[in-house]
Amino acid sequence: MKYTLFLSLIIGSHLLFSCKRENTTPKPVDVVINSMSDSLPVLTLPEDVDPENEDWAGIDLEPKSPVLPLYPEQEATKFLLPEGYHIEPILTEPQIEQPGAISFDGNGRMYVLELRTYMLSADSDGTLDPKSRISRWEDKDNDGIYETGTVFVDSLIFPRFVLPYGKDCILTMESDTDNVYKYTDTTGDGIADKKEFFTNKYGRSGNVEHQQAFMYYGMDNWLYSTVNAFRVKETPNGVIREKTGYNRAQWGVTHDDDGKLWFQGGASGVPSHFQFPIHYGNYTIENELAEGFKVPYGAAVKIADMQGGMDQIRAEDGSLNSVTGSAGNDVYRGDRLPSELYGQYFYGEPVARIVRQINPVVFEGLTTLHNAYQDEQSEFLRSTDPLFRPVDMTTAPDGTLYITDMYHGIIQEGQWAQKGTYLRTKIEQYQLDKVIGLGRIWRITHDSKERDKTQPKMFDKTPLELITYLEHPNGWWRDKAQQLIVLSRDQSTAPALRKVALSSKNQLARTHAIWCLEGLGALHPDLLETLFQDPNPKIRIQAIRGSETLYKTGNKSLAISYLKLLEDDNIDVALQAMLTVKLLEIPDYQKALSKIVKTNQAKGIQTVGSQILTPTKQENRWNRNEVLLSEVQQKSLEKGKIIFNELCVQCHGNDGTGTPLGNGTVMAPPLSGSIRVQEHPEYIIKTILHGLEGPIDGKTYAAGIMVGNKEQSDEWVAAIASYIRNNLSNEASTVTSEYVAEVRDKTVNQKGTYRYPELIHSVPTSLPLQPDWKITASHTAPNRIGGTASPKSAFNFEGWTTGENQKEGMWFQIEFPIALSLTGIQFNSPPISRGWREGSPPPLQTFANSYEISTSKDGENWEVLDNGEGSDQDFKLDFNPVLTKFLKFKLTSTVKDENEIPWRIRQLKLYVLNTKNELSK
Q1: Which run of H or of E encompasses 541?
Q2: What residues contact residue 247 under an 8 Å CB cut-off, 6+ apart?
Q3: Which residues form the F5/8 type C domain (predicted)?
Q4: Nearest residue to 421 (alpha-carbon basis) of 588, 503, 306
Q5: Torsion angle in degrees (nearest 10) through CA of 227, 229, 233, 234
Q6: How many other C-beta atoms are found inside a 10 Å radius of the C-beta of residue 704?
Q7: Which of 78, 619, 668, 752 is deepest in the core (most CB within 10 A)?
Q8: Which fold has domain 767-920?
């Protein structure tokens, strides 16, 4: 009955959204206005704030009339654009609320990321409530207005991104979680009815502005995101992962015609990484921002609601005097705006209420960014409406530029808008906290050209037919055609793509054809050798980048060409070769680089070459989930790497994806990105000890059998198991020799090699959190952003905490609806940082000082499962299966310390021997 009701509500929403915007009264604006007081606000500063204090000197604290929202047509009159440009609304509230980003699928349907819980109050109340959604919109009558929409996925917890990924399919994930899911509409009604796991270990902790965002499909067929220092890619054998440099971005990823990714910073107010493709790592480039770049030239907004206070405000008009926040970005690659905009970089500064146009100037291989309107002391787009909040820019299928405007009162997370702060005072002074639930998508056009009214129908085309779009003048069409060709895995397109790559007169089509071939696994060495010698340096660069996949999978002969290309007459080609030989660690590359650095005095060659030859450690303050390995663990991993390269690569391949045999087949099961490998360590240990034969999940491999290694030492097994679980696109805990000994003893009676069904049913499997579990605790602190917390947060990145000093008797309990046969427990107790600078005090450890874990079948009679003293932030306990309905964790001592040390549990996992059976009971 509940499920039927849910479907009825969704269908009701679908019908509600099938309407014209102009025929719908924009009631949300009226509702917001009516919520505001008719009388002027009375500013109540905290008792410890003295208006006469010098910190408040010059600040206008007089009561003000509230800032009222405008209807879209009214807001449009407040924009300031260069001559000849126009802006019009194409989708607004009430159809959408608080949009954070948009993206288009192959049929030109627009997906809107609706962050419906962002800053609904100055205290961030309800931010993590499951009320956000992803909606999908169409312009069916082709009049330029997106009038028909559905709720594609509803009831999400502050989703991080939306990436269309094939027909009627998207990828997304929620805040404070670790998994990316694929949502598909299998019935054609515009509502996703199928949810599939895509990849894990993708999330991080932090407030909602500091978590990963913008999963983005790059020209190189890898998926990137902000914050995360890695990239992932779906292959026929699963999703693989590679480490990258630190992008230090928050909200925005895009790419240019060369496939280079541009990442957008947040609090910095400027682009964060753009010199070279991020997978080559980080290089320090001086003066990459032109003089004066950080000075914004917004219109007078009067209200001066800047988080940085009066130091960041122009007193005469209340506008921002130095960039402080940025969101959304796009390298404009469309064909319906003036040609001088093509290749220009656009990003939003929602604090300054501007969209900036940036001109990238490349000199001797290095890029410097210039504000295109700095000489005029202006910006590409400004607004005198204080509620204009540009958070995303997008080259659209119609060749124009779309602006996502959250149209919101507050654009700063609640941690920086607390009582007594300057920003909070301004928020209350103008009642900015009342302006919620609105949002607009705008289209920018120009007198010189009309928008392209050709509606994309790529899902109706065969992969072979899509190749023609690789020559389209609008980059969006080229990108989407490439993505769909690669996702099709249709090898029959290879001959036609090869022809385009070799002989098309369109350099951009050739570039995309190269990457289509790479994504299909059809970019062969003979073609590459020809492309390495192509007269066009841009093609030589793309050939070098595309060839890296072949080198990683074992084609080491390419090294000769790389070293030759180091001496290329074109600076950009030589620089690309430098990045590639360093990435792939070509034998003797340092010697070759030393020669080039001595003979080529180009600034880019000198800057990058010197840093490769004399590297410095790169720190990443964003990656606070990173686990530091001990010296013993590091040595074990080094030993494991040697074992893998000596023994395992013949069948499993250099990168762990399996040695290719042609026609999409591989010698042995992929280890790269394997969930089985990364889940419980027993799987990989048992496999190494006793071997494995026969089909895996119904798939047969040429090797047929992996022999066991019982004769090897526990240290040897631990080393190779640790290496596989921590490399080859995998990220999991290391394995100790002591644990190997336990597994060896437990399986001493194993006769011969395992068959997969026997093995998988003997390995503990994590049990996902279920909605009918009753989870309680003696103490629960508010979450990071001041909202309501729940003990259920122990199962995700948000985590659960007592919030106060550890005291004897504190407890955390799980009650299952029916008794389960548990066999393992894992969780993390993350330390509390006391500063990130050198010399800062060590972090405070939050694992239990001493504990007791008990189980019960009735909640009255308890048996102690384990007890002891905490010693590590990663807790792991394996035990013989125990049938339990209640599981309780309890502290058995009080911490006496001058610092308050709470107890924390995060990413809690419970293990059973057969998840399917347990869930079906």
Answers
A1: helix 537-552
A2: 224, 226, 227, 228, 229, 253, 261, 263, 272, 273, 278
A3: 762-921
A4: 306
A5: -70
A6: 11
A7: 668
A8: Jelly Rolls (2.60.120)
Helices (H), 60-156: 72-76
Compare 635 and 92 and report the one with higher pLDDT: 92
Spatial separation of the C-alpha atoms in residues 108 and 472, rounded to whole Å: 15
**Residues in CB range of 598: below 8 A, 6 or more apart:** none
**Is 184 strand, coil or helix?**
strand
Instruction: Considering only residues 116 and 51, tell me which one the structure prediction assigns the higher pLDDT.
Output: 116
Q: Where are the domains of the chain?
A: 2-446, 532-617, 631-763, 767-920
Instruction: Using alpha carbons only, give the angle 282, 283, 286 rounded to the nearest 5 degrees.
Output: 140
Residue 622 binned pLDDT confidence (cut-offs 50, 70, 90): very low
Q: How confident is the model at residue 627 (pLDDT cuts 50, 70, 90)?
A: low
pTM, 2 dp: 0.83
801-815, 836-850, 896-910: which is most confident: 801-815
pLDDT at 537: 98
Give yes or no for residue 781 having a pLDDT over 90. no
By C-alpha distance, which of 617, 618, 577 is closest to 596?
A: 577
Q: What is the CATH number of domain 2-446?
A: 2.120.10.30
Helices 475-488, 507-520: axis angle to 10 degrees equals 20
Topology match between the domains 2-446 and 767-920: no
**What integer pLDDT is reported at residue 9 of this predicted model?**
29
What single letter denotes the amino acid at residue 494?
A
Distance from C-alpha of 297 to C-alpha of 327, rounded to nearest angstrom: 17
Is CATH 3.30.450.40 correct for 631-763? no
Residues for the chain: how many in total?
A: 921
